[in-house]
Amino acid sequence: MGNRCTLHEKETAVVKNHGKKQRAKAKAKRTGASHASAAAGTTHVHPAPDAGLMEGMLPYVAGSAPDHDLAARLLGACWAGCGPCQTSLSARAVAHRATLAGLAGAVYLVPLGAMAQHSPLLAPSTRAWIALAQEKAATGHGHVALRAVDDLDEDDAHALLDDALDHWAALDMENVSLLKEFRAAGAGGNRVPPRQRPADPMDTFRAAGINVVTVDDLDLGESIDPYYLAPNYGVFPGQTTTPSGQQLPMLTLYPETEDAGIEDLEARTDWEHWGMYGLPDVDPRWRVRARIADRSLQGLVHVGPDGEDDVELWRAAESVSMPPDWWDLLDRAQHVLIVGPVKDASPAALNAAGEAGTLLAVVARVAFV
């Protein structure tokens, strides 16, 4: 995370629970410079991100447009670790609630940001706002999220900005364009309509009144692992370059069982056909699980609405530490490009599948465990 100061000057002397301790520790680590430079009358100019990054995240409401220049300068001060600039600009951002809503919405209204509403490291009022904003934006009533920021009291408004800037500080300016690409991928842009899953061949029998029993209908008990009853895949790591020149880690799938392949992936996923250019959809329900203790990958799963894994495509047979450079890229990007299937674990097979038009792909979220 980058350096930045705490927004509130009123700090609680005793931090009682673990979540608050972690937040306080993070804030202390990001404390900016002293006010000496400000007292000396030094002018501060910090590199700032593209202010348009926030545009389109929340609907326009007359009289409630974010001040993009103010937001960009605050983020520049945040990444530079300049305490005096952060203090003055943060006060202005809290006073200008549309800017506060824009800064928070830019990080929390992307698909990955939805998961933050469950984080104990965020203030309860922040988690409540994220849940409301996600719900209203999904139903076309995103302006309600703006109004909700207007209604926050001073302490909760400071907490929302503080938490949002923690996320911006973790992102840092180097990866802002990557976030923008994820958002563009999620919005769809000028892309082809989403691929539809093929019809289940068993539907013909069901329509004829024939009772069909599948593995999902069976009560297998704990003695049988359903993972081994479904097609399985292996993976090999790589990396790719996004259209903006950012590096992104990649995992390529190859069949480990005879029934694994393109037909299986088309039936079990909603991944799009990918021609090895641009970025496919970002779907945070697909998770690459990575274990911090030994820097190994554990599996590739899809998480259902109940929070349980409902599709498991790959499970590591053993723990293998990833190369340091690849792991560091994974840690920075927090996302992985998943592509496949290919015939075998080789770059040549990947290129052949791309030329043949037989690749499916998705951008998955990294879940560190």
Short structural summary:
The protein is α+β, with helices and mostly antiparallel strands and 369 residues long. It contains 13 helices and eight strands.
Q: How would you sum up this structure, described in words?
A:
The structure is a single chain. This protein is an alpha+beta fold and 369 residues long. The chain has 2 domains: 18-171, no CATH class; 231-368, no CATH class. It is 38% helix and 16% strand. The protein has helices spanning 18-29, 36-39, 68-80, 83-95, 97-108, 124-138, 143-150, 154-171, 176-187, 202-207, 262-268, 324-333, 347-356; strands at 233-241, 247-255, 272-273, 282-291, 296-303, 309-315, 335-340, 360-368. Strands 1, 2, 3, 4, 5, 6, 7 and 8 form an 8-stranded mixed beta sheet that branches. Helix 3 (68-80) packs antiparallel against helix 4 (83-95), helix 5 crosses helix 7 and helix 5 crosses helix 8. The longest helix has 18 residues, at 154-171. The chain is globular and about 60 Å long. The two termini are 19 Å apart. 33% of the residues are buried. Mean pLDDT is 75; it is low at 5-16, 25-43 and 187-197.
